[in-house]
Amino acid sequence: MAADTGLAALASITGRLPTSLKAGFGLGQVASQLFRDAPSLLLLFYLTNVMGMPPAIAGMAIFVPKVFFGAVFDLWIGIASDRIAFRFPRRRWLLIGGLCAPFAMLGPFAVPEASTSFQVAWVFVTFSAYMAVYSMFSVPYLAQFSEMSADPVERTELMGWKHGFTGLGVLVSSAFAPMLVNRLGMDRQGHLTTMVVLGLICLGCLVVAWRFAARIPDRANTGRTLGLRDLPRAFADRRFAILCASAVLMTVGAGISYASFPFFVKYAMARPEPLHDIGVMSAIMAVAVMAGSPLWVMVSKRIGKKQTYVLAATGHGLVTLAWGLMADVPMPVAYGMAAMMAACNAGWGTIVLSLLSDCIAEARDVHGENRAGSYSAIWSVIEKAGIALGGTLVVGAILSGWGFDSAAARAGVAQSAGAIAGTIIAYSVVPGLTKLFAALMIWRFVHERPPAATGEPVRA
Predict the structure, then answer these.
(1) What per-residue string of b and e applies to 38-70 under the rule 16 or more CB within 10 Å gives b?
(2) Treating both helix axes as pointing N-terminal to C-terminal, what angle do 2-14 and 19-26 enclose, rounded to 10 degrees?
(3) Neighbours of 259 (CB within 10 A)
(4) pTM confidence score
(5) How far is it, in rounded angstroms, from Cα 395 to Cα 431?
(6) Angle between helices 177-184 and 28-45 (to 10 degrees)
(7) Rg of the chain in Å (alpha carbons)
(8) Most buried residue, 106, 267, 326, 429, by CB count within 10 Å?
(9) Distance CA 224, CA 406 (A)
(10) What is the DSSP letter of 403?
């Protein structure tokens, strides 16, 4: 407790948050990333290949809770966390979510041996509960970042820490988790054991974040809150509306790219062991994200947030498009392109969240409204729905439209040239263009005035 008091006193005197606090609170992002990525990578494969559920039925059992109930829970938690923030601090949501995380992570995979209808009902109910737990900690967690500091430069640093830990989450969810499943035998027990391990990791990260959140100096939070009927009014905030529109492009593109990555590696790159190569590239990407985040924070201090976002998003789009044109490059070159993509991802991912925190801070400081939970909820809905939409419906439509033959894939027969082109369009062309359009949107509609006395450009 003495350490907590000392850190709070230091923050109140210097006006700066200690680095240890930023790192400790940022660790909670690992849990958010695991909840986002682990089911996207493993659940559908598990339900179809291990439990024997038909792919279309299993996909629908996942898609409906992920999009519909995910949106409902996000909005409800966001509004509630605003309205009761004065008597139920946001950090307590992290503790509740952490305690529920192991059970939520295990539930959708603990499908009993039963009829298909019972299994579908099990997945639907348990994955709905999973999305409720995800909303329970992810929305208040994002909202609290905007309330930790009144300094926009420091908020960018905070988002740099957050996005840096995104890389660690990617490493665990996209490299460690599938490798652990493979090591344990690829069967039902192997998946269940892996989910228990991931759930305990989430618990540990969220408890650490909750513990460090107690060291954040309390700030007055007496602004008016938005109700459910008031949510459309959030889009009257022009800057917030622009950021949301750019996020739709980015998340749908990310979902398409994520789901089509195995197809691209196996068919366009013609790799005999695509899962091994994906694991290696995911690890490289994770390290690049962790290393790139602090560098982009430094860049934003020199050239401003808008220019940094445009530079990073444009770089990401161009590298993605180039990779599609050079799918047959040697693997060392592919590893380098993966690292460049991830480094650029760290840039726009960090800055867009910093811009979001600026919108929340302005609503509080200028308009006297507490919109942290509401804005974070809307943002979370866009991220989850965009990833789900791009990673299921859109990528499926692209592959089907270009003639991908699932029966041939199951039998080990080569795909047509058109089908291979479809994998390139899904992984490279469409996501690359979404990044470029998002960069154009921010460049055209987000404006900055000359730097203020603090050295931080101020958006008009």
Answers:
(1) bbbbbbbbbbbebbebeeebbbebbbebbbebb
(2) 110
(3) 24
(4) 0.78
(5) 11
(6) 50
(7) 22
(8) 267
(9) 53
(10) T
Structure tokens, 133: 């737990």
DSSP E strand stretches across 400-459 = 448-449, 458-459
Structure token digits, residue 451: 């730097």
Closest CA to 219 of 362, 79, 364: 364
DSSP for 211-236, written as a single string: HHHTTSPP----SEE--GGGGGGGGG
Q: Alpha-carbon distance 20 to 209, whole Å?
A: 11
Closest CA to 296 of 286, 284, 305: 305
| Type of residue numbered 10 | L
211 burial type by CB count under 10 A (0-12 exposed, 13-18 middle, 19+ buried): middle
d(CA 253, CA 263): 16
Closest-CA residue to 356 (of 342, 384, 377, 387)? 377
pLDDT tens profile 14-71: 468 899 999 999 999 999 999 988 887 788 778 877 888 886 788 788 888 888 888 8
Q: H helices of 70-187, where?
A: 70-83, 91-106, 116-147, 152-170, 177-184
Q: 141: which 2 tokens?
A: 């967690």
Q: How far is CA 284 from the centre of its chain?
A: 18
* Residue 73 tokens, joined: 């829970």
